[in-house]
Design a protein that fits this description.
alpha/beta, Aspartate Aminotransferase, domain 1, 2 domains
Length: about 375
């Protein structure tokens, strides 16, 4: 049996007729950019998240870049972010000329609040939290720090559609929430897409202007903006998937609960994911962590031999990437982050995964000698 780490086709076939009907309706409408589908999706997504406004964009990276721009953060400013995030989170900071200040994560992969507070300087203007793998960060502690220090708070929710802390959705704690709708996301489009959420009417207005060449009125350009528009087709298809988010999330939670219950690693060769108190987990990824790097390499090879695909999220932390060599960090700068990079492994997790497929994965993992 061959098991892929992710299967996006299953998500299509589950609602095939709805997706095809919507696609045809958009094609026949004759309106393909910034029309009724985008407007409707923005309203529906804002209602789902619990924010006043949502603005559709072309990608999650654009959401991050435009978020910091709209907040006026740029050259000479520092933004605190946990070092174990995906590099796109950091790019949203540096594309505006600001400097990322890395901190170590906690055991649930979110920023360690104590280390966040210790990293604040007179140059710090914002905190960026990334809700990795589908679990909300410690937003109680982080929001208190932001308020006490007078800092802007941005949430990277690319992996946390539907995740909550204290019963409140991610994307509603900060000044701006940034979302990706890349096809593999829990709320995935059929191409690139993104959005920001906010309760600030002026921020929403700024983002709408920036996404459309800096123009609020056609051919009248107020600022030098970008071309970052969620198109009508993607918006329409996202509306279909959004209408099923509750059942899709429950399915992922059920798959994760089976992993939690049935995985029994030998010789403590790997750990199952920890759950944060007062938070839920929507399992964009189910991430195990091996006892060391050598064990992970053996496990990956063993699973490959048994045709089970895995992914490492992420093998190279941003501070050690070639892209950010100019920041001057060296190996050993963030030992917890670097240990995670050497030991985390995402095992198969996707909507439409059958019990037989998952049972096969569980059986092989439990048979791994360590």
């Amino acid at each position: 049996m061959k098991i892929m780490p992710n299967r996006m086709d299953r998500g299509f076939f589950a609602y095939q007729q709805e997706f095809e009907d919507k696609a045809l309706a958009v094609l026949r409408s004759g309106w393909y950019i910034l029309g009724k589908e985008v407007e409707s999706f923005e309203k529906e997504f804002a209602a789902y998240i619990g924010s006043e406004y949502a603005v559709g964009l072309a990608s999650g990276l654009d959401a991050l870049q435009l978020a910091f721009r709209a907040l006026g953060i740029g050259k000479g400013d520092e933004v605190i972010v946990h070092a174990n995030t995906y590099i796109a989170s950091v790019m949203g900071i540096t594309m505006n000329g600001a400097t990322p200040v890395f901190v170590e994560p906690d055991a649930c992969y979110g920023p360690d609040p104590e280390k966040v507070e210790a990293a604040v300087t007179e140059k710090t203007k914002a905190i960026l939290v990334v809700h990795l793998y589908g679990q909300a960060c410690d937003m109680g502690a982080i929001t208190k720090i932001a308020k006490r220090k007078g800092l802007k708070l941005v949430e990277d929710c690319a992996q946390s559609h539907g995740a909550k802390w204290g019963g409140r959705m991610t994307g509603t704690f900060g000044d701006i929430g940034c979302f990706s709708f890349y096809p593999s996301k829990n709320l995935g489009a059929f191409g690139d897409g993104g959005a920001i959420t906010t309760d600030d009417e002026e921020i929403a207005k700024q983002i709408r202007i920036l996404r459309n060449y800096g123009s609020e009125k056609r051919y009248y350009n107020q600022v030098v903006g970008v071309n970052s528009r969620l198109d009508e087709m993607q918006a329409g298809l996202l509306r279909v998937r959004l209408s099923h988010m509750e059942e899709l999330t429950k399915e992922r939670e059920w798959i994760a609960s089976r992993y939690d219950k049935l995985l029994q690693p030998k010789n403590n060769c790997f750990e199952k994911p920890l759950r944060r108190e007062n938070a839920n987990h929507v399992f964009h990824q189910y991430v195990i962590r091996t006892k060391d790097a050598a064990t992970r390499e053996r496990l990956i090879a063993y699973l490959n031999d048994n045709e089970i695909g895995t992914i490492i999220h992420y093998p190279i932390p941003p501070h050690l990437s070639e892209a950010y060599a100019y920041l001057g960090y060296e190996k050993g700068s963030f030992p917890i982050t670097e240990n995670y990079a050497d030991t985390v492994l995402s095992i198969p997790m996707y909507n439409g995964m059958t019990e037989e497929e998952q049972g096969y994965v569980i059986g092989k993992l439990n048979a791994f000698p360590g």
